[in-house]
Amino acid sequence: MELLSIKELDLASKKVFIRCDFNVPMDEYSNISDDRRIRSALATVNYCLDQDCAVILASHLGRPKGEVNEKYSLAPVARRLGQLLKRNVIMAKDVVGDDAISKANELKNGEVLLLENLRFEPGETNNDEELSKKLASMAEYYINDAFGVSHRAHSSVEGITKLYDNKHKASGFLLSKEIKFFGKLINQPVRPFAAIVGGSKVSGKLEALINLLPKVDKIFIGGGMAFTFLKQMGYDIGSSLVEDNLLEDAQHIMDEAKKLGVKFYLPIDVIAAEKFSEDAVSKIVTSQEIPSEWMGLDIGPATVRLYREALNDVQTVLWNGPMGVYEMEKYARGSNKIAHFVADSYATTVVGGGDTADLVQRVGLDEEMTFISTGGGASLELLEGKTLPGVAPLIKE
Ligand SMILES: Nc1ncnc2c1ncn2[C@@H]1O[C@H](COP(=O)(O)OP(=O)(O)O)[C@@H](O)[C@H]1O
Ligand SMILES: O=C(OP(=O)(O)O)[C@H](O)COP(=O)(O)O
To answer: What is the pTM of this model?
Structure first.
C-alpha cells in the first residue's frame, strides 16, 4: 500500500495543518511521563519548518467527551514541543473558536501554532462535517501524522480529508513509517505469532480480538481486559473493571479460539486490592477467588510464570496494553516482568500504545524491542487486516 507522501507536496512557504497524536501519558500534576508521541512528530514538523511553512498542529488528549476540561488541556504538550523544537509554540485557547481562527490567520511562515484539544469540540468524535470545514479553512495543506488515532473516523482524521484533493493532502513521516512496518509484519509474520492484549480500553479491544483470532497462534490476556472473560467463565471478579454488555462477545471469542486452535491464555491469579490505590491492602489470589468488592489490579506471579513458559517458542509478538495498573509501583510487577520476557526473547517484538510504550520505557527496555509503535488500538486494527479510516483517503490511486 503506497501512501500520498508529504515529500511530493509543494509546501514551500505554505500554511500546513498537521494532525498529530499528542495523547501522551501524564501524571496527576500534568507532567508528561513519556513524550515519545511528541518526539515522533518532530520529523514532519521540522520538515515543514525547513520549507518555511506556517505550521498548525492539532491533537486530542484523553477523552474529554466534547466538553472543555482543563485537565485535558494541551498546554503541557505545547511547552514540551517548544523545548524539543527549540522555538516558541503559540497555543490557541480553543479549537475553532475566535482565538484559534485569528491565531491561524495571523500565523507567519516559520511559526508553529497548536490548537486546543480537538475533543473539546463535540463534533470531533462524531466526524462532524462543519468542524472538518472549520479546521480545513485554516490551511492550504493537510497532513495526517497521527497513526495512533487513524483507526478513528473522526472529524480531524477522516472527515477533513474530503476537503483536500490529492495534491493538497498526504501522510507525514511517522504515519508512513508505521504503515510500512505493519504492512511487512502482517504479510509474513514468522510463526508462532502471539498477541499480548491488556489495558483498560476493553470494548474496542474485545472487538479487535475476534478478527485477530485467524491471524495469530497465541493470545495472552492481561490488565483490565481479563475480567470480562473471567466473569463470563463464572468467576467472582469483585469490583474489577468489566464490560457487562460484552460478556457474550467474550464467550464467542473463547469459543472461536478453541475452534481455530488458537491458544488463549487468561490470568490464573491476580493481585487484588481493596481499592484503586497504591496504599490499599492487597493480596495474591487465584482468579476464581477475588473477594467481593476487591479489584484485580495486576496479573499474579503464577500467571507471570505461565505466560513466560508459553511465550518461549514465540517468534513474533505484538503487545498492546499493560498487564496491570503499571503507574502504581505496587501493581507494575506483572507488566515489568512481561516487558523483560519480551525484550529478552529472540522474537520480533512489537510494542504499541501510549501506555504500553510508556511502561517499556520506564523499565529501560525501549531500545531492546524491534519496534515501538505509537498506536495500540490502531496497530491491533491493522493486524486484523483493516484499512484504517484515516489512512484510506491517503492511499495512492
Ligand atoms: N486491572 C486493571 N484495572 C484497571 N485499569 C487497568 C488494569 N490494568 C491496566 N489498567 C490500565 O490500563 C491503562 C492502559 O490501557 P490502554 O489505554 O488500553 O493501553 P495503551 O495506551 O497502551 O493502548 C493504564 O492506565 C492502566 O493503569
Ligand atoms: O492513545 C491512543 O490509543 P491507544 O491507547 O490504543 O494507543 C490514541 O491516542 C487514540 O485514543 P482513543 O482510544 O481515545 O481514540
So the answer is: 0.95
